[in-house]
Amino acid sequence: MKIAYLTGIRRVELDDGPEPKLQRPDDVLINVITVGVCGSDMHYYRTGRIGDMVVEYPFAVGHEFCGEVLEVGPEVDRVRRGDRVAVDPLIPCGRCDQCTAGREHTCRDQVFLGCPGQMQGCLAERIVMPQRCCYPVPETLTSEQAALIEPFSIGLYAQRLAGDMAGKSVAILGVGPIGLCVLLAARAAGAERVFVTDIRDNRARLAAECGADWAGNPEKQDVVAEILRRQPEGVDFAYECAGEQETLDQAVGVLTPGGKVLIVGIPEFERFSFRADVTRRNEFSIQSVRRQNRCVQPAIDMVAEGKVHLDALVTHRFPLERTQEALDLVADYRDGVVKAMVEVAPRVS
I need a labelling partner for 121 at 20 to 30 A (CA). Which of 11, 19, 22, 142 fits? Predict the structure, then answer.
């Protein structure tokens, strides 16, 4: 079985790996069809780590994928051979205080696909996942749309953490794939006005096509002033989706008193800060967003019902043997890339 391994900083090698086998009664063997390259994969690719999660080579990344069920364990009843599935990459323990409180995404003993020290990723021809992670998708969804369910479920969860958005105003600072998913979820939830920023003009333009009322580039204009000119009282919710101190400052700068900052981006630095006087005087709320929680099936339903359209996010496609090119492209933001997909294997049935 072929696996695309990270073998060093910005180095990928396609090699043979062990064939996965069913080990537990609820296991599902999956033929990997297509994999989305995620921004978090880039941290491991460029720096070999996210915080204290450090890559030990060789290691396969990848956690956004659609696959086809090849074989199931004796206790599997949710999927069957031949089904295409969108996959939740988080395997919770199901026993800790977080899991029993309905917070599986902050499980104290979780295993995450493509996370160092936890589980090899899905940039491989086949993989085994527990059935609780496998969500059948209707034939009306393409395999790319099914792979995009994982990032869209994060955007949907981020929207739901803000609460009721009907008639509300939103700013999204950074519209890479996750920021775009937040935009799509916010619009579907009835947000009245959405303002977005990005330092890459092609992403700002795509956000406008996806429903943003205004899109600006902070390297070319004062985006805080431009948003406040259009929304003088400030926005109700500001999403930081770039993982940068500058965008956090901008998020605070555009909020209305009593507003909420939601931190979705993953920074490559250890600490960020907020102006104490502004944050305190305006009684801002600050909410970190950790992946998603119970939003995979709602995300599938929204895409299947045509409430959101994800196809515009995909800009580039590569076969498995060109994974290095895919990761380089995304790491360097070349050729207008938004979402690159690695096409691993065709459907069997």
Answer: 142
CA 227 to chain centre: 26
Q: Does residue 114 contact residue 87 with C-beta atoms inside 8 Å?
A: no
CATH 3.40.50.720 residue window(s) in the chain: 152-288
What pLDDT digit, counting tens, does each position of 91-147 carry? 999 999 999 999 999 999 999 999 999 999 999 999 999 999 999 999 999 999 999
What is this structure's pTM? 0.97
The Cα–Cα gap between 77 and 134 comes to: 11
The three-state secondary structure class of 90 is strand
For 2-148+310-343, give the CATH class: alpha beta
Q: List the structure tokens of 48.
A: 């070999």
What kind of fold does domain 152-288 have according to CATH? Answer: Rossmann fold (3.40.50)
Report d(CA 239, CA 169) in Å as an integer: 11
Question: Interior CA angle at 142 toward 138 and 145, to 5°?
Answer: 100
